[in-house]
Amino acid sequence: MPSSLLLKISVLSLLNLASSLPTTIFHDNTRTCQEYIIPITTTTVEAIPAFQPFRDNFDVVDFVNQIAARDAAKSFAPFSGTRNATHSYDISGTICWPTVQTEQAKTILLATPGLGFDKRYWDIQMNAEEYSFVDYAISRGYSVFFYDRLGTGLSSKVSGYDGAQASTHLAILKQLSVLLRSGQYTGGVGKPSKLAHVGHSFGSFLSQGLITQNPELSDGALFTGLAWDSSSQPPALESMGLRIANTQSEGRWVGLDNQYLTSGDIAGNAAFFFHGDSYDKQMLWYSDSVAQPLAIIELLTLTTLITGPSKFHGPVMVISGEFDFPLCGGNCTDTLRGPAELFFSNATDLQTVVHPKTGHAINYSFNATGAYAVMLDYLHKHQV
Questions:
Q1: Which of 37, 100, 149, 356 has the most crowded Cβ, counting Cβ within 10 A?
Q2: Are the C-beta atoms of 167 and 44 separated by less than 8 Å?
Q3: For the residues 198-204, what does the mean pLDDT come to?
Q4: What are residue 24's DSSP bridge partners?
Q5: Which residues neighbour 11 within 8 Å (Cβ) at sequence distance 6 or greater?
Q6: Residue 101: pLDDT above 90?
Q7: What is the pLDDT of residue 5?
Q8: Which residues contact 238 (CB under 8 A, 6 or more apart)?
Q9: Rounded percentage of the chain residues whose pLDDT exceeds 70
Q10: Which range is the signal sequence, renumbered to this chain (predicted)?
């Protein structure tokens, strides 16, 4: 019996070790990358949904109309209470660093994608030299860790009804930050000298939540596609024409329940993420081919990430597209500075930037590398 128990423990230990080992190592003349499957356990406070799960797309349409209603703040109550919950997940992450080592490579940029995307948002493969944030950061000497949020890409699949909550996403980001700072899952970088957080949209809200709750885990923050004008979100959601993802593309969203939604067609994708003539139509089609559904519970719990001013004392940049529709109502020129000063009043050097002639998805727009240059020049200025 003891030997049998010992064998079981040994097998479990090997399985746990295997789950965290790099699954792929690849490199070229400019960068070397390792991919990991990272086991993470979270304990969080979850919201308990009070609404019925979606049965069909008519339920989705009716539900979005409720969210978008003029009196939704008073008439719409999606939750009945809260509960404590502990869950274990596997998170797919990739670390890339310059093949020719640089001093700057000891700074890791931890990049979190927004709703509708997985980690490929940061490493666009079509015309990569013009669009890939990872490639640009590598060319500037930085290392980048980017990952699939829970429910997307190669990370664990959970219910979109009550599983992929903002509090869980935030707990995962916190654990990833702790792991990276300790030198785990960092490939050839080893233990970093600094860790900066980069986000897009929902990923920016998550990163904002992190530096608010745990300012000691970050040395700098770059928030893209971020603003706080809640009045623009209902019409933006309506513009997407949200539908149940597994009804839109047969076989593509295996493992996702009816609570995961995606735009009804590529025009809905364009309406939400893009603007006018600020993008290449081929890039729109590419973005649609690698898009990820959003969970309805993610939308409903997003506001829990905004808890007040942060005590973070490092550098913070908020950079959003001039014509960002979902977060600025199509005009960001005078909407960023005021709220940013409220949330990041303790930042070393708060900068708000309106990136010209772009929509919500800056990375997929013309002059994406122009935004990257502004972002990394800022970090370099502050020796991050």
A1: 149
A2: yes
A3: 98
A4: 35
A5: none
A6: no
A7: 35
A8: 64, 65, 68
A9: 94
A10: 1-20
Could you tell me the CA-to-CA distances from 235 to 71, 115, 119, 322 in Å, in that order? 14, 17, 27, 18
Lookup: tokens for 124: 């666009």
**Tokens standing for residue 249:** 């593309």
Q: What is the pTM of this model?
A: 0.93
Both structure tokens of 261 = 């939604």
What is the C-alpha to C-alpha distance for residues 353 and 72, in angstroms, rounded to an integer? 31
- 299 contacts 63 by C-beta, under 8 angstroms: no
b/e 6-21 (16+ beta carbons within 10 angstroms → b): eeeeeeeeeeeeeeee
Average pLDDT, stretch 276-281?
A: 95
Alpha-carbon distance of 292 to 59, in angstroms, equals 21
d(CA 98, CA 96): 7
In the chain, DSSP assigns E strands to 22-27, 31-49, 79-98, 107-112, 143-147, 194-200, 220-224, 242-244, 260-263, 294-295, 316-321, 351-355
Q: Which amino acid is at 88?
A: S
Mean pLDDT of 138-151: 98
Coil, strand or helix at 68: helix
- DSSP states of 182-249: TTTT-GGG-S-SEEEEEEETHHHHHHHHHHHH-GGG-SEEEEES----GGGHHHHHHHHTEEEGGGTS
Q: Evaluate whether 153 touches 292 at the Cβ level (below 8 Å).
A: yes
Q: Mean per-residue pLDDT for 342-370? A: 97
Q: What are phi and psi of 58, to 5 degrees?
A: -70, -35
Q: What is the pLDDT of residue 23?
A: 66
Query: What span, in angstroms and rounded, lies between the C-alpha atoms of 364 and 287?
Result: 8
The domains of the chain are located at: 20-381
The band of 76, judged by pLDDT with boundaries at 50, 70 and 90, is confident
- 192 residue type, one letter: P
Q: What is the mean pLDDT of residues 67-84?
A: 88
Question: How big, in percent rounded to 5, are the helix, strand and coil portions of the chain?
Answer: 40, 25, 35
The values of phi and psi at residue 6, to 5°, are -60, -40
pLDDT at 330 over 50: yes
